[in-house]
Amino acid sequence: MFNTDGVLKSLNEVQGVHQAVIVGRDGFVINSVGDMEADSVGAVISTAIGAIEAMGRDCKQGTLFEVMAEYNGGVVIAAPIGTDAVLGIVADESANLGGVRFVVKKSMKELEKVM
Amino acid sequence: MGSHNILDIAHVSFLDIIRASIVQLGAAATKGIMIRNAIGAAEKIPEVAFDTLDDFVTSIDSAANPVTQVEGKAVHYGKGLFGLPVCPFAASISDYKQVYGGLPDDYHKITDDFNREGKVTSDLKVGHGAGVSPFCSVHQPLRGALRDRISIGGKSISILQLGCKSGSGEKGLAQQWIDETEFTVEEVNKVLDDNMCCYAIKVEA
Predict the structure, then answer these.
(1) What is the CATH architecture assignment of A5-114?
(2) Continuous segment of H or E residues that includes residue B202
(3) H helices of B4-106, where?
(4) Is the Cβ pair A50, B120 closer than 8 Å?
(5) What is the pTM of this model?
(6) How far is B133 from chain A (nearest CA, A)?
């Protein structure tokens, strides 16, 4: 197991965040912290990010850094970690989006080092 | 092509959906979907308890064996070493080739990803070199996951994918899983000479 516990824990401590998960590109969970069904979250995040990357590729937009989907109940953020994994964050509507994205951006550097 | 030159369009559609998924979601995500579907299918198979490995082997002939029910009749070479003469996806591949002349170029990406070190493939003891086509990402995890549906002598079992052979005759071996058995690479190769798939069943202590 990679040493990602601390990063995921700090992400999960942000106001409104319910799940912080690292999944392989195949959608199988590598590590997760939160109160949701991590396997289900991981599976949909891996397929979603694959589709979003294909959209960027076909629209000639280059490499994906991050994707954020807003819903009436909250947000889902996903960001590739290198070529083999994806970070996913699920937060409710009480979350400070700027705060969540700041922590995600800060965490990505640490995750890319340990993955 | 099926009997009377009737093409099974379900086969062709299935293979086309996989190709589209590789393009739209990526090979790894597609492989993950295939594996999760396979595990889900295995979980729907009723549990079966065999008294001995011989009983397990005997049940192959009557197709009362859960493994036989999902892949067809395997041949037992003794001590839990099995060969499967016909790949369950052979008809699908054949039908697709009848239409398009060959499998899609992108298919190798799934095979490559399936053979990489991975959490779920390590757990199920599949892949790791034993994948020779994208369909191994369905077949091998499906059979591997059946370990949770089968007991022998009241004990749990493990099912190890030792090797596989493509339609063109190319063999893929999983050295890591062969090393966990009493069988040699030569024995596995010999089984694959007459079969498309080679696996071992171990009764846990």
Answers:
(1) 2-Layer Sandwich (3.30)
(2) strand B197-203
(3) 9-25, 27-43, 53-61, 66-71, 90-100
(4) no
(5) 0.90
(6) 17
